[in-house]
Amino acid sequence: MIWRLCNVLLQRRVYSDLTGGELIRQTVKAHRRLTRRFAERRQQEGTNPSHKAQYITAYIESQSVQLARERRMRETAIDERALLSAVKAASLSLTEPNSNSRGGGDVITARHGLSGVSSPVVADGFGSWRDGSPAVERQLHSLDRNLHCIVRGATTPPAFSPEALLRRTPTQLVSVQRLLGRIKCGAPDGRASGVWSNRGVKEFTRELSFCARSVCGANDEAMVSLLGVIIQATAKQNWALAFQLYGSCVLPCLDAVAAGNTRDRSTSFLLSVLCESVRCFCLAPNEVCGGSYPPFETVSKLLKMAGRLLPVAAAPVFSIIPPTGSGDGDRVAKENGNNVKGSPGTWEEALALVALFQPHGQKRLYLPASAWGQLIRAVGRTGAPLCRVRELVDVITDPNSVKHGERHMHDTHVWNAYLSCSDWCHALELFANNWLHYDVKETAATSAALMESLLHSKQWERALGVFRRLKRKEGQLIVGTSAVYAAVFRALGMQRDWEATTKLLVDFEGFLAPLGVPFESWKSSRLHAVVRDDNSACHHEDENVKGKRLPVSDHEFDAWLAFAYELREACGATEELVRSVETALVACDPRRRQNSSEGQASHASQRSSVTAEELFDFM
Description:
By secondary structure, the protein is mainly α. Among the domains are: 2-36, no CATH class; 385-479, no CATH class; 481-596, no CATH class. The protein has helices at residues 2-15, 20-45, 49-95, 103-111, 134-151, 162-168, 174-185, 198-216, 220-235, 239-255, 261-281, 296-306, 314-319, 328-335, 347-352, 369-381, 386-396, 405-408, 412-421, 424-433, 444-456, 460-471, 482-495, 498-505, 508-512, 519-523, 526-532, 534-538, 554-566, 575-587, 590-593, 612-618. The protein is elongated, with a radius of gyration of 36 Å.
């Protein structure tokens, strides 16, 4: 430092007229100014000692609060453990006089989690009870996907499943239970048709509005979930009643709280739940639903009533489009008092519904892959020839016409739908040659679609061969789906093998467990007692032409039919599966086959002169 000052002094002495003392004072003053600036800059760049003290104090206080909270949680856990012991002792004292052994008390304490072994208490953060555990949510989502989307073959996401809606809705409340009970009781005026009178609809609307305000308050998501549960419970009774309450009760209740984009999302959600519930619970004619499909005019009116719809609602809507010549839905609608036309919808009208899910000004069409698959199936049901179905598939897989068209070329939904609409020779050739070439994922729905194509031509032997091939892949994918079992029972009904049909029906590991039937429910059923009865199984002399044993009495046959109807309460059983089991049981017994009404008229496919270019313009 000294030599630097000397150098500066010598330079200034040479180039200035100042004296030596003045130069020294001026140089020292400049050096002090420079030193002060460096000190100020270092103070600004570094940490303040007073700030460090504040940080240390805040850290100590936070650690003290955390330690005090943990100590309080441990004390609370000790008190709760003592309380659980007292409750357990009280429950044992209450259950011992009413039970022959101490097993009843153990069942009650185990059911409510009052076991003697204390589990480690995990300290929860403030407000953590409002949100579920992420691990549990992921597991529930996986279960919903497997049960709802795969086993049940649904056209909606896992969040739309009945199980997910029930978890989000407080169904244990008295007001909600009253609404669900009123739906299960049927028409309030005693009508046998299933629909309600205007007075009953007004009373239900008033009660639904009061329940929604008291249970959900200002939470719109909770209200939409509650309305979804109401729609699902209604669809289990009657599709006509579900449509009636949807238009007269649900939509007005939704319009009172939602508007704009929120209303579009909520309406699309509720319409998807409605159509999926109708597909699942009202697919085949039975004594509850009365008809397999709603009339096409009813579906069109439902879409116009909903307003603007999102693409997520397209697949459920296409899944309930009635086939050509389906008169059951019209008959039931007339009996229910709905003034609808009796003419079935054509495949051109089914294609026109695509425009309802497209925003204005969009150059290319967009729908989910599952919606395109359901559209192909709907076009095939409404009588379109195979050449028109191929042209539709060409449009769907064209990236210039449809968004993500190149992905649809490898999508399993599109290919499965095309398999189900093709004749069995073309379907087998397509599956054998082109499946691996286009890298399409094979699922249980693929085998179900292939079996459906085979059963259209009465090729039940080949269909059962496809099922045996699918069973060999068990463990690699989920093979026990409702669509697969429905096709299997249809094939067994064509084979008319009573022994094979009943053997599969009572196979718990191979049939009941994949559908979600509890073992206790199977053991408590009337059919279980009939199967255990060796006298009714061995001492029967009447046999059919193939040597297969037939039911010994009407009582046994009624037990088989009753068990088939009880499958409706199973989680993964659809109405299509229930009716397939019933048809197979009736077809395997020649004594009851003559009395059954299985007349099905064959309808010729409608022809059209629409070209492939006009097909895209029409859509």
